[in-house]
Design a protein that fits this description.
Helices cover 32% and strands 30% of the residues. It has helices spanning 13-23, 29-47, 85-94, 141-152, 167-176, 204-209; strands at 7-9, 54-59, 64-69, 75-81, 99-100, 102-107, 114-120, 129-133, 136-137, 157-165, 182-187, 190-191, 197-198. The model has no long low-confidence stretch (mean pLDDT 95). The structure holds 1-O-pyrophosphono-5-O-phosphono-alpha-D-ribofuranose and uracil (URA). Uracil is lined by residues 83, 136, 138, 196-197, 200, 203-205.
């Protein structure tokens, strides 16, 4: 795959370990859900290394010192429904006060084109760092459309976080939204004839919620 300045693919031993279990078709729904949350938490730490901090005065038992904090309420989470819901708790573990918006998209099973069916975002989201989360970045259609929708509503600082991606999807998002950092845990070989990521993990929404 071509190299993009806005794409970051993690090479983290713990994430690799967890993804091996996540892919296994015999992994239970409960364990699948827990793994998605744990991987998301690690990804959130890794992807926020460069976040803007503000100086604050802290009084230790010995003296007053200038320290640095993430400003309160500066982060929002937007899962792409449904599967993105599985990643919300992982970001909340790191940013417990983050407000949550929702974008509902589904892929038409024949055309693979994304369809938006819901969008509700917290007030003031324009000024926040927004984590758009979806575990699967396949053709990239859903992510590109969700990013368009967030930008139309004024969001300026958006990061996309996906656990498993196909090269086609990464390329599509990177080209359509070069200003958006894209964080991916693992890059898979490609897509099959039904638009599923291979080797992938199957349908993330179904495995999270037990719908199949
Ligand atoms: C899955 C996944 C992404 C999308 C990725 O959702 O969670 O949103 O497909 O595919 P794309 O990159 O080709 O657009 P799906 O449409 O299966 O809906 P669901 O989460 O409700 O199951
Ligand atoms: N959506 C999924 O849940 N899995 C895939 O492999 C592709 C899209």
């Amino acid at each position: 795959m071509k190299k993009f300045d806005n794409v970051f693919i993690f090479d983290h031993a713990l994430i690799k370990h967890k993804i091996a279990i996540l892919r296994d078709k015999n992994t239970s729904m409960k364990e699948f859900r827990e793994l998605i949350e744990e991987i998301t938490m690690i990804m959130t730490y890794e992807s926020m290394k460069d976040v803007d901090l503000i100086p604050v005065q802290v009084e230790t038992p010995l003296e007053v010192t200038t320290q640095y904090k993430v400003p309160d309420e500066s982060v929002a989470i937007v899962p792409i429904l449904r599967a993105g819901l599985g990643m919300v708790n992982g970001v909340h573990k790191v940013f417990p006060t983050a407000k949550v918006g929702h974008i509902g998209m589904y892929r038409d099973e024949e055309t693979l084109m994304p369809q938006e069916y819901y969008c509700k975002l917290p007030e003031g989201i324009e000024d926040k760092t927004v984590f758009l989360v979806d575990p699967m970045l396949a053709t990239g259609g859903s992510a590109v459309d969700a990013l368009d929708a967030l930008k139309r509503r004024g969001c300026k600082k958006i990061r996309l976080m996906s656990i498993i991606a196909a090269p086609q999807g990464v390329e599509k998002v990177a080209l359509a939204h070069p200003d958006v950092p894209v964080f991916v845990s693992t890059l898979d070989r490609g897509l099959n004839e039904n638009g599923y990521i291979v080797p992938g993990l199957g349908d993330a929404g179904d495995r999270l919620f037990g719908t199949k």
